[in-house]
Amino acid sequence: MAVQQSAGPDPYFPDNGDPRYRVHRYELTLDYRPGPNRLAGTARINAIAGRAPLSEFQLNLADFKIGRIRVDGRQPHWTHRGGRLRIKPAKPPRAGAAFTVEIHWSGNPKPVNSPWGGIGWEELTDGALVASQPVGAPSWFPCNDRPADKASYLLSVTCPSAYSVVAGGRLLTRTAKASTTTWVYEQAAPTSSYLLSLAIGKFQTVLLGDPGIGGVPMHGHIPAHLLPEFSRDFARQPAMMDLFQRLFGPYPFGEYAVVVADEEFDVPVEAQGLSLFGVNHVDGARGSERLVAHELAHQWFGNSVSIADWRHIWLNEGLAKYAEWLWSERSGGRSAQQLAGAAHRLLSGLPQDIRIAAPGKKSMFDDRLYERGGVTVHAIRCALGDDRFFHMLRAWAGLHRGGSVTTAMFTAHVNRFADEPLDGLLDTWVHRAALPALPTPAVPARPAQPPTNAESA
């Protein structure tokens, strides 16, 4: 595992995260009451100081009431304003030393402000949902909110027994007591804070396919009235999982779940081992199937292999976009070359003023970054040919599993699979704004790959 930590603050979100330390594990204990939208929590954070004694450090946490803070059992001096919890330990941890922070907080959770509106904890008509990309994690728990600071999580949530709790990871226990139930999830894989997600609602749970021995368990958690449409719209997800494991390598986590909220979403959102969809993505006609593939692909690209900071988001979105096209060409739809051509025509009619390697904060989620990212990956495929291209993808996902990466690391990795360096190609596609010509494929329209059973699904 290669972990690439930024040396300083995230250039797009300098107030989020603290590079002076890293978190090893979060243990979160939450009590949530949907009616009054009341959350009370305790966090035990196991962390490691960086290269200097930690006389001060910060966590990100939204506007909650703080009840108690301890660092290694001692009361520190602290301030909490503007979403930043600054802590001065009574006894500063030494350079490289492990330390523990305990925090108690309570209040009414709500989304945090961002250039894209409110992000994070959202109170629904009957329940709650968390979708935190990119900076919504502090809306519900204290964290070192930077994508490269990946930790394991133990999450315990107590709520009224009428509600189900779904989180990414393995459900360890579900314990009913009087009128409440406590759900305990373990996410052992290294996880960025924005990728910890939570859904509280009245769901029907279904198993998606039979994982068999050694397979990946996949569940859907949906409103009961959507079951007929969901059963058709997500019927081919097991075939997607099979295909992506062949193309990208083993699925990086122990399980995968999808949640459909009984609310409309602009777009689905990925989380670690979990994807969140809105009721508008379930139509019974597979109208959002490309998005089902996109969110599943993020489990490899974005979640397991994460970015060092938000400048490199094209590595998440370009590879997930290309996974949509790979699914299409192997399931009876248009080929990746045809889809790359359609994306190129779309881009050619739009302003060419974005460099996807550093799009700027305002353009992080611009559709052009997704489309151009996909065509960039297709250009790499055309240059390498299929055998080396898919070998390159599998090696990328395997070498950096659980780690964090940058565009420069991806460029160096791609070059290891090329006869001649592809720096010029990548510079043109990734670092420059002008749109290059559509790449000429050096691969057949439907490359020979192990067939899927998608057509029969």
| Rg, Å, rounded | 22 Å
What oligomeric state best describes the polypeptide chains here?
A: single chain
Q: Low-confidence stretches at least 5 residues in length (pLDDT < 50)?
A: 1-5, 445-457
The count of strands amounts to 21
Kindly report how far apart the N and C termini lie.
36 Å
Q: How much of the sequence is in beta strands?
A: 25-35%
Structural class: alpha+beta
| Shape assignment | globular
Mean pLDDT: 94
SSE string: EEEEEEEEEEEEEEEEHHEEEHEHHHHEHH
Tally of DSSP helical segments: 9
Helix content: 10-25%
What does the model show?
The chain is an alpha+beta fold. 24% of the residues lie in helices and 28% in strands. A hairpin with a 2-residue loop joins strand 18 (269-271) and strand 19 (274-277). 47% of the residues are buried. Residues 1-5 and 445-457 have low confidence and may be disordered.
How does the SSE layout of this entry go?
Elements lengths: L20 E13 L4 E12 L7 E4 L4 E7 L5 E5 L2 E5 L9 E10 L12 E5 L2 E5 L19 E10 L3 E4 L2 E8 L2 E12 L6 E4 L2 E4 L10 E5 L4 H7 L3 H12 L7 E5 L8 E3 L2 E4 L11 H9 L8 E2 L6 H17 L5 H13 L18 H18 L1 H14 L4 E2 L1 H9 L7 H9 L26
Parallel strand pairs: 1-10, 16-17, 17-19, 20-21
Antiparallel strand pairs: 1-2, 2-7, 3-6, 4-7, 5-6, 8-9, 9-14, 10-13, 11-14, 12-13, 15-16, 18-19
Features:
457 residues; 21 strands; disordered N terminus; alpha+beta
